[in-house]
Every structure is written in C-alpha cells, then in structure tokens.
Amino acid sequence: MRKEDCFYLGKIVRKHSFKGEVVIKLDTDEPELYREMESVYVEFGSNLVPFFIEKSSLHKGNQLRVQFEDVYSEEEADAILKSEIYLPLDLLPKLEGNKFYYHEVIGFKVLDKIFGEVGKIKAINDKAAQPLFEIDRDGKEIFIPLIDDFIKKVDRNNKTVEVDTPEGLIELYL
Question: Can you name the CATH fold of 102-173?
Fold first, then answer.
C-alpha cells in the first residue's frame, strides 16, 4: 500500500500491558467510527505494513487500545511504538455539503464572492493556529483562513470552493 493512497489515522503512543497491547491516539473527531477495524497500516521507515487487529476498545476519548496479531510481548510492542497508523482513503466516511477533507480540495479553484476567481488550492497549511488554504494565482501565493463563515459552497462536481472573504484580504497578496 502506498502512503499517497492512505490517510493518517493516528500514532501508537504507548504500551498498555506486558502482553503487547498498545494505545493508538486517533486523529479524528469521531473515534467510535474506528472501534471495529480488522487491520491498519503501520509505517516502518518509508513502508506501510499491514497489521491485523485481534481486539480493540476505545480508551479515554480519542484513544484506541489494540491487541495486534503477532504482537504478544513488550519487546514486540516496543518495535512499533511511536509508529504512525494509516488506513486506505476509500475507508474515509463520505462528507457532504461544505464539509471536506483537506486532501479532497487540493486542485480545486477558489472563487471569491467579490474578487472573482482567486486561483487553485495547492495545499492546506494546518501548521498555523488557523488552517489556511494555500492558493496559487499565476505564481503568487495567497492565503485564506479556513473559517466556516468564509466558506460558502464546496462544489465537488465542478471542483470549486466558493468563499466570501473580508474586503481587501486577497488584494494584500497581489
């Protein structure tokens, strides 16, 4: 499985028992969706390796306690500790309306209510306090905060995101 075909689900943060159980901190608002998984991909270097789940249970909010097949000791659990966990993209729940996954809107055109066509989304910067659309407009970079009030419509068929930004925000970058 290639990493490009997967989404990041979380990270193995600690061991839970001397029998190889581990705790995965899930990067999701809906951890209950991932309670009944059969397998996950564990990142080893640049490879994703499938690990089959023997049993799992939700643990303290967004943590999942997992017993993997063939991981039955502390030493075996140590080998996967701090590893990132991935699942295939086709397992992501479908979002509708103005909700979207960041990877889903890469390449979409951004249309501002007043300014008109802004450019194409080349990335989402989620490293800042506020996630930002990174938009390419003929080689110039424009940043628009991902604020619900700004996002008016996500049109998956036409690959567009319609926004209504404060006056002058886009012009700051031009």
Answer: SH3 type barrels. (2.30.30)
